[in-house]
Amino acid sequence: MSQSSVSRVFGKRSKQHTIILASGDKVRHWTIRPWMLGIAASFLAVMAIGYLLGTTYLVLRDDLIGATMARQARIQHAYEDRIASLRSQVDRITSRQLLDQQLMDDKMTRLMEQQARLSTRHGRLDSLLKRAEVVEIVPARIPVPQSRPEDQSPGDGQQQAATKQGRVKQQVAAVDQPSPQTSQHSYAAIEPAPATGTGDVFDNVLYSLNEIEQEQFEKVQYLTSNAYRTAETIRTILQKAGVASGLNAGIGGPFISAENPTAFDASLNDLGAALDTLEKAKLLVRQMPVANPVPNHSVSSKFGKRRDPFLKRIAHHAGIDFKTTYGKAVLSTGAGTVITAKRKGGYGKMVEIDHGGGITTRYAHLSRISVKPGDKVTVGTKIGAAGSTGRSTGPHLHYEIRVNDKALNPQRFLNAGKQLQTYL
Predict the structure, then answer these.
(1) Is the pTM of this model over 0.70?
(2) Domain CATH for 409
(3) 260, part of any domain
């Protein structure tokens, strides 16, 4: 078949491109096929796209970096703000703890100071209470009002008094064992709130100690008032008997509030002064001739004007006569010093006792004398025996009381003695 016929049947083949390289005698050639051109075109396209992408990245990189950096900055700022907030919370918590600790330390300091103050007062108060017991003015009931006085019935105090004997010492011992009480001047009882934390525990302890201190303060004030009142009663009784007691039972001084830190010490000083006054009054009473020289014996002749048994006319009787049996013991009616113990005119055998303050007593018509001048006697000391010596019509005791050598009615002293029995 000819070439022309083949071409007509299959078509004309395209010519292939050939690259020829000649170098000297050497000649090289490469035939460029279509697929090679496709590959080359694809490679160039990839490179172009990569270039475009790279260019685009380089153009947009600053914005991306800026956005990334801004985001990182925002994250860092948020983190720092969170850290600052947490640090602030920690500081607040620490400050609150420090403040609570300081408050707790202050409460502890107050507690220790008050405990030390109460402990220091314990010995002093105990000694004063012992003195109060000696002079018998310790009340059976401590007057700490729990309700208004006008709301109490008359029998309430007696019933409470029977159940609160000896409370004075128990209250002093309670300094080391606090009990719930109130430090406020009110009639309504106030109960401490239940403790819900350490601070409440300290508050309740301080509350108890304050109440103990307040009750002690009221107790001391009551004892002081009672001592002065008893001393004033004794002084009044003695004055009515005709004896100037020389006791100053007046009460005064600047006002000191119960809440003042020095109030309790001042009240203890007042109690000591009141007890001194009362002890002085009781010592004076023991010296005064207010007892009966022959107890349980009646008076046969009174003081004052009477008909003289010998001359049968009106005369002054300077004492009183007690009807006694012969040899009956005669007792001293007060403390003092014997200044006369001998026979003296119409008195017969007589004992005279000096009680101080210009007060003397005479015991006449004795059958026997049991003391001598200079002897110290107390109330109830036997000084002799009744008889009928001297100017006497029969066994009896002639008893005189003289103040600055002036005879006074002994019956007034005997009556005063009966009133004073409850205070001796």
Answers:
(1) no
(2) 2.70.70.10
(3) yes
